[in-house]
Amino acid sequence: MADWDIQDLFRRHNRELGSFVRRYVSSPEVAADLSQDAFVRMLCVRAPAPIQNAEAYLYRIAVNLALNHLRRERIVSFSADGGEAIAGIADDAPSAERVLHGRQLVRIVQETLESFTPVQREVLVLSRVEGRTLDEIGRRLGMSPKTAFGQLVRMLTRLQHRLDEAGR
Length: 168
Hints:
The chain is mainly alpha-helical. Helices cover about 75% and strands about 0% of the residues.
């Protein structure tokens, strides 16, 4: 149970709380409503510890209510403009043409990778996916780093050539 009297709090602070809230909101009616809501919330408080300063707590509730009201007001005014503000926002979704082009490029890369031998694919995966050095690749696959490098260059050149052809 609270160690303060809500009726006394109301008598002493109702008018000044309304004036205080009025500094935040657009109309006296809204300020009065929010002040009343603050008292209702104060009445319903289930604080984990006793409230030491009931007036300060009441004013904090009122400020929070006013700020929440302002946020809702901005959202409503933004959405009430008929979506004109939203229409000006760029759409990040790719166009149908761009999606199709992307799918074609993926198909080309896939076909090109399938044309490589399993060892060549392993060199590519170890280098580009796992980030292994040419020395590590050579040791793992039983080839010299120079051979691994040569295969990697040939594969990347072939892949780039296929992608360039698709871009024309």
